[in-house]
């Protein structure tokens, strides 16, 4: 499948490194307003066309699917434009900034019968299904803790610090909320509370609690103001599971009372982005318009949770 890439910052470079590990994927075109024609990516791939206009890439008849790696506020508009041209879309997270934007994406995807997937790589990690099964070892679950914080203070000119699209919730919320929502799939969220640390219209840090039906509580933390260990901890009556770098989920450790630790590792071809790219290729070949592993409804659920965290946190400021 021939991919056109819209936007070519650091994450798109990682996409370019990941796609050779897929079965049938390749980049045929890049649309970027800043990429140099002498860039090593283009010099090493002379058949890849460079466009300065995003729309021109979508008009390229060789482009069979689109990967969108633009700043957050441009995701929805170019996702809709690509879907209207019946190009399957893999869009970086967050797929949209509002519930209403994602509802439009889902509507256009259905109208055009064209595939759309938010690039939430956690859902395509090879160990996720095994982790879901292993939570049964813990007995009745009590809490799921997720923490993803990093220091972005040197990136003050980044869109991360643009009040119209930046902040920790938009950037990290899909990971820290998406993980417990994936584990608790099928259980409704009964209560949401949140606390924000804001500066200049930007949420630099957030903490939140989600209470699921059945009483399990997810404790979320994300920030662009400090470095902390990125991990998830799942606790039950009989023990816990610690997942380092849970957003990638390449392994975890199970600690049960009175038993030696159990280590799980999940080697996979390529890297943590390869799975989501392959999912698009396979799903489109199967005639689907969304992924059974990360559906449009899943993306909407995350956005609703983030909206409610923001509203509750803002009310307490």
Keywords:
single chain; 317 residues; alpha/beta; six-stranded parallel sheet; 9 helices; globular; Gfo/Idh/MocA family oxidoreductase
Give the topology, please:
Elements (H helix, E strand, L loop, with lengths): L1 E5 L3 H9 L7 E6 L8 H4 L5 E3 L2 H5 L6 E4 L6 H10 L4 E4 L6 H14 L3 E4 L8 H7 L6 E9 L18 H16 L5 E11 L2 E11 L4 E7 L7 E6 L2 E6 L6 E6 L5 E4 L8 H12 L10 H20 L2
Parallel strand pairs: 1-2, 1-4, 2-3, 4-5, 5-6, 7-10
Antiparallel strand pairs: 7-11, 8-9, 9-10, 11-12, 12-13, 13-14
Helix pairs in contact: 4-5, 5-9, 7-9
Q: Work out the number of β strands.
A: 14
- Mean pLDDT over all positions: 96
Task: Choose one word for the global shape.
Answer: globular
Over the alpha carbons, how many angstroms does the gyration radius reach? 20 Å
The largest sheet is: 8 strands, mixed
Given as residue ranges, the uncertain stretches (5+ residues, pLDDT < 50) are none
How does the helix and strand content classify structurally? alpha/beta
Can you list the strand order of the major beta sheet?
8-9-10-7-11-12-13-14
Family: Belongs to the Gfo/Idh/MocA family.
Protein name: Gfo/Idh/MocA family oxidoreductase
Keywords: Oxidoreductase
GO molecular function, one term: oxidoreductase activity
Describe, in plain words, how this protein is organized in 3D.
The protein is α/β, with parallel strands linked by helices. It is built from 9 helices and 14 strands. It has an 8-stranded mixed beta sheet, with helices on one face. Strands 3-2-1-4-5-6 form a 6-stranded parallel beta sheet, sandwiched between helices. Helix 4 links the parallel strand 4 (65-68) and strand 5. The radius of gyration is 20 Å and the shape is globular. The protein starts with a strand and ends with a helix. The model has no long low-confidence stretch (mean pLDDT 96).
């Amino acid at each position: 499948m021939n991919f056109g890439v819209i936007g070519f910052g650091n994450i798109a470079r990682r996409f370019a490194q990941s796609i050779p590990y897929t079965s049938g994927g390749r980049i045929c075109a890049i649309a970027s307003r800043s990429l140099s024609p002498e860039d090593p990516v283009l010099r090493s791939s002379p058949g890849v066309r460079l466009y300065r206009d995003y729309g021109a890439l979508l008009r390229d008849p060789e482009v069979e699917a689109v990967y969108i790696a633009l700043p957050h506020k441009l995701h929805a508009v170019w996702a809709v434009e690509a879907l209207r041209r019946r190009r399957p879309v893999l869009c970086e997270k967050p797929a949209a900034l509002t519930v209403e934007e994602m509802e439009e994406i889902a509507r256009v995807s259905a109208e055009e019968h064209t595939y759309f997937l938010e690039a939430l790589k956690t859902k395509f990690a090879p160990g996720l299904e095994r982790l879901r099964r292993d939570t049964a070892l813990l007995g009745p679950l009590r809490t799921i803790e997720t923490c993803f914080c990093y220091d972005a203070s040197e990136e003050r000119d980044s869109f991360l610090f643009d009040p119209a699209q930046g902040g920790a919730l938009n950037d990290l919320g899909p990971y820290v909320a998406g993980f417990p929502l994936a584990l608790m799939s099928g259980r409704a969220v009964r209560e949401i509370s949140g606390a924000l640390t804001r500066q200049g219209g930007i949420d630099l840090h957030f903490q939140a609690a989600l209470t699921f039906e059945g009483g399990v509580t997810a404790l979320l933390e994300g920030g662009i103001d400090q470095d902390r260990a990125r991990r998830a901890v799942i606790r039950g009556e009989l023990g816990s599971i610690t997942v380092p770098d849970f957003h990638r989920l390449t392994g975890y450790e199970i600690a049960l009372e009175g038993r030696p630790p159990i280590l799980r590792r999940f080697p996979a071809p390529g890297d943590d982005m390869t799975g989501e790219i392959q999912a698009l290729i396979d799903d489109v070949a199967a005639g689907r318009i969304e992924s059974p592993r990360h559906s449009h409804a899943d993306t909407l659920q995350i956005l609703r949770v983030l909206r409610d965290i923001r509203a509750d946190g803002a009310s307490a400021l």
